[in-house]
Known about the structure:
Elements: H1 2-14, E1 27-33, E2 45-50, E3 56-57, E4 62-64, E5 73-74, E6 80-81, E7 86-90, E8 107-108, E9 121-124, E10 130-134, E11 144-148, E12 155-159, E13 161-163, E14 176-178, E15 219-224, E16 234-239, E17 245-246, E18 251-254, E19 259-261, E20 266-267, E21 271-276, E22 287-292, E23 298-304, E24 317-320, E25 326-329, E26 369-375, E27 385-390, E28 396-397, E29 402-404, E30 410-412, E31 417-418, E32 423-427, E33 438-443, E34 449-455, E35 468-471, E36 477-480, H2 520-526, E37 541-547, H3 554-557, E38 559-564, E39 570-571, E40 576-579, E41 584-586, E42 592-593, E43 598-602, H4 603-606, E44 615-620, E45 626-632, E46 640-644, E47 647-651, E48 670-671, E49 676-677, E50 690-691, E51 695-697, H5 700-703, E52 711-720, E53 729-733, E54 738-742, E55 755-766, E56 769-773, E57 780-785, E58 792-793, E59 807-818, E60 821-826, E61 829-834, E62 851-861, E63 864-868, E64 875-879, H6 881-944
Parallel strand pairs: 7-8, 51-52, 54-56, 58-59, 61-63
Antiparallel strand pairs: 1-2, 1-13, 2-7, 3-6, 4-5, 4-9, 9-10, 11-12, 13-14, 15-16, 15-24, 16-21, 17-20, 18-19, 18-22, 22-23, 24-25, 26-27, 26-35, 27-32, 28-31, 29-30, 29-33, 33-34, 35-36, 37-38, 37-46, 38-43, 39-42, 40-41, 40-44, 44-45, 46-47, 47-48, 49-50, 52-53, 52-55, 53-54, 55-56, 55-57, ...
Amino acid sequence: xxxxIKFLMxxxxxxxxxxxxxxxxxxVISEVGWAGSSVNISDEWLELTNLSSATVDLTGWSIxxxxxxxxxxxxxxxxxxxxKSTYLISNYDHQDEKSALAVASHxxxxxxxxxxxxxxxxLKNAAGTGIDSAGDGGAPMAGxxxxxxxxxDAGERSVSMVRLAAGLNGATPAAWINxxxxxxxxTATADLGTPGILNLVIPDESELEEEIDExxxxxINEIVSDPVEGQEEFIEIYNPGDTAVNLSGWSVxxxxxxxxxxxxxxLAAHSYYVIWSxxxxxxxxxxxxxxxxxxxxxxxxLEYGTPDVPAVxxxxxxxxxxxxxxxxxxxxxPGAANIISAxxxxxPVVEPEPEPEPDSNPETDDTSLLINEIVSDPVEGQxxxxELYNAGRQAVNLAGWSVRDAALKVTLLPEAELAASSYYVIWSxxxxxxxxxxxxxxLDPDGRLVDSLIYGTEAIPAVAxxxxxxxxxxxxxxxxxxxxPGAANIIxxxxxxxAPAATVQDEPPETPxxxxxxxxxxxxxxxxxxxxxxxxxxYTLVLSEIYANTLGDDATEEFIEIQNTxxxxxxxxxIMLEDEGGKQYLQTDFYRLAAGAYYALPRTLTKITLNNxxxxxxxxxxxxxxxxxxxxAKANQGQSFARRELAWAWTSQVTPNEPNxxxxxxxxxxxxxxxxxxxxxxxxxxxxxxxxxxxRRVSLAEAKLLSDNARISLTGIVSVEPEILGKQIMYISDQxxxxxxxxxxxxxxxxxxxxxxxxxxxxxxxxxxRRVKITADGSISLIGSATEPSAISISPAAFTDAYVGRLxxxxxxxxxxxxxxxxxxxxxxxxxxxxxxxxxIEPSIFExxxxxxxxxxxxxxDGTFRLSPRSASDIQVLKSPVADQEAAAxxxxxxxxxxxxxxxxxxxxxxxxxxxxxxxRQLIHRMKRLYADRRPLSASAQKAG
Length: 945
């Protein structure tokens, strides 16, 4: 029996659910003294900060780019960083005469070396996972040497690079500012910085990132930046883990911040994924590559073109060797295990035989281009294309050339040279190539028809996914199952359409009938249909930032930035920029700009020179309608002219491809031009004209539907004032919705529940919850007082994102409590309560088994809904488990007494029955004796008679 009990206890322990993985400490690079000190230029230091409430073991951690030669600096075994504390690393000990530090560092090493021109640091944990970054590999984003004082008091001092806020991306300039305070230095030193001093705002614990599962850690494994002619650049990613990784949301980024998103697919364990032709072009002489996970954390980092990792050239690759180091190899192996071999010399180029020219092709070199291949029905996830071929013996300048479809939608070719016997691919040409049939015409700069293709006819039928129409050696267009954009045509049998991905559904979908091939006349009549001629686009584009007088080379650093202020993404192909002198740039490539996103066009692309003494920039839609224009006066060196809500201002925070940022001392310069992008005349009458101003007035519910970085203005009633659920957050609501307001410096105005406010800010997302980020102190305006928002009572089963940010009331039973999290059961659903540390709520009131009524803000954290009460008044204990225990004890006592009385009655009855039985027995015995005595007398009497 005892053995059985032991077995059941062990089995019960084994069946307990696994403990969920807790949030890990969040460590960031908080300050960098890359410029040394006024005592010694080599007196460099950097500081880490632990934002969490747990000690972090730094054993095995490293900082890429922080050691001599730009290699990784490994932190010593046994190193720790205490909760909400700093960890200081320095080149010299604070007692060394070459040091200006007055505080002892946690790690002193002569290997520390911070670049003054190529600062790019990546903090990695023991698993090699990128945790944080500082700089992007270019010039440091803040700090340096500055002059101070006047006369005899004048001098130079070092200024450190200080993290502005933990939540900002450390690889962007917006995350860093110049130090303005001086703590932690010798008294005789005028340097600015706070080495070893905690100065970051500590975010709410729920804001900290969760630990990245090491089993989902990918890394960069091989690259080719200078491919063999006719081949493509590539970046190879490897999954070293034992489980598959979903690539959705992962990306790679080069030094110019051009990002390539990975597809929504699974990468099996110990497998490779090759990114062909990543966006941005890998520079042959050197570049940087960052691999980022879906949260934007840098997981792996490669910088080549340095003394440690030199750039390699055709036909060689850079590949990771068994020691984890990138080395040159003469054997590229995309999609397979690396082979490290000696570098090879380029192979001699063999010119391909030009394909035969059709009879209709002109023989002059000026008009030697022809249409060579098209795909009108691409494989899902890919793009339509038209391929041109230069069949002549000399290069052709494509400037002014164009292609157009039957609907006369024109795609202009870029200002570039197409070499003889070479190909040029037009991806996603304007107008959409109709699957059933269309016309493609090639026009020279004078508008003359050079070549044409009419497909969807009996002679040239239309083909479906995954096939192409390609010119054969006889110059005729025929179907082929192998599309070869940018390469010689391969003519083979048509391929079957790929099977659709399996879906879970009640019944198999109906297969639509294959449309009959259209005749030429039918093609013409189909043109006006909606499917072939999409609705006109409302171009919600504005000028956002102009950078004319740069700190470096104007020829390479100038740019003009535009923003899409609408709710839908927009194809930029066909838009035009123009300066005051009439110099124009036409966007000829397909580029889709997401809603709310920014796009910086550099001078190297536009060829527009921005005058430092003032200029005018205009932005035109493809139909030549004016979308926006802006003038600027004399440009300040190192400052850009940027849109600031409804006005423009000079700012020293230059932010290409990012939201504009301004220091508090930078004021409005002039109002933005009131240009409005009007919808084309043929647009639907139900379409709402969208103002070209970047800030849009929306409701709270509408705000949640906008993309991140969309700039908005909204009004609401304060439902949770600041410093209740978190120092950096508050909540507002209206009758339909609610939303979080976030301010990284936590400097909110004095507000109370019931205040009606206007908010101007930027949409963002934190762990899946939509919120509005505000920066300027004037981003919140008090309108007046209103009725305090009332809570809605709904079942947890009805929780959706639409209710997030609203006051919600539920009733339930306490199941358990762990720290600040309480688990309730309400209507047979489990609900998490989060008790913020800044509230007056005593967690002990949530006793297991208690019945409670709770009102709070419904929040969302990585897909889990949580209810956050604001104060003790939001909680009512309906029934305490203590009362239940007392009631149970009383019931037990009564039952015991009743049981005791029952036993007494039972015993009394038994006693009476026993006594009665004994008496009856005595009576029967006496009657028997009496009968026996009388019987002889009766017999004697009978005998005598």
